[in-house]
Design goal:
The protein is an alpha/beta fold and about 220 residues long. The chain has 8 helices and 6 strands; from the N terminus they run βαββαβααββαααα.
Length: about 220
């Protein structure tokens, strides 16, 4: 396994700085293809985990792009189209519920991030990763806690990952309408837990997650 490489650039974000501050610091250090990376789907009881990676041209910014959790579904869909049309490159990685159960949600999330980065063309030479966990790569990376609120490329990745996963869960709803995945997207809502109690689990459920095990009883 290749060890993660952490580049010791100086980052000191202040409230008045723009959403492309971190990307600008990377450009200033000589990097040219800076990718923002984020994920969606760590918490749900059913469905895949999805990660996205996005590279913009230098200086590109859109004031509407922010953490996907702050946006309505309609706004996320609108911005997804804008990101798709404006980014230099975009990659998406998906790990299914079986893989999540096999290697745990954290490792599955990092695997999805690695998959998303591998799909970027041009390949990135620096990674800005949301959160506190990096993944094994020779590409230098910077971990940014709450990066989806202060980095344009990470925020864009959060939107892409969220929209992609939501669309997948809406498609799954057609096959498993009894769970109403189109509404809660697999999260542990009261409605979803009641459906698990009533109908049991389907192949989309994460069997190692407490909410699923609790409501299905011992196996």
């Amino acid at each position: 396994m290749v060890a993660s490489r952490r580049e010791q650039l100086t980052f000191c974000h202040l409230p008045h700085q723009t959403m492309d501050f971190f990307e600008g610091q990377c450009y200033g250090a000589g990097y040219r293809n800076i990718a923002g990376i984020d994920e969606a789907g760590r918490g749900p009881l059913a469905g895949p985990g999805v990660a996205a990676a996005v590279i913009f041209s230098r200086g590109w910014i859109d004031e509407e792009i922010t953490d996907s959790k702050r946006l309505s579904p309609q706004k996320r869909e609108e911005l997804y189209g804008k990101i798709l049309g404006s980014s230099r490159s975009m990659g998406i990685g998906v790990v299914d519920q079986g893989e999540i159960d096999r290697i745990n949600i954290l490792q599955a999330t990092l695997k999805a991030m690695e998959m998303a980065v591998a799909k970027l063309s041009p390949p990135p030479d620096y990674l800005l990763v949301d959160g506190i966990h990096g993944f094994p790569t020779q590409i230098p990376q910077r971990l940014i806690k709450r990066g989806d609120t202060i980095s344009i490329s990470i925020a864009a990745a959060s939107i892409v990952a969220k929209v992609t996963r939501d669309r997948m869960m809406i498609e799954h709803h057609e096959r498993y309408p009894q769970y109403n995945f189109a509404k809660h997207k697999g999260y542990g809502t009261r409605e979803h837990l009641e459906a698990i109690r009533k109908f049991g689990c389907c192949e989309l459920h994460r069997m190692t997650f407490r909410g699923v095990k609790t409501h299905t009883g011992p196996t």
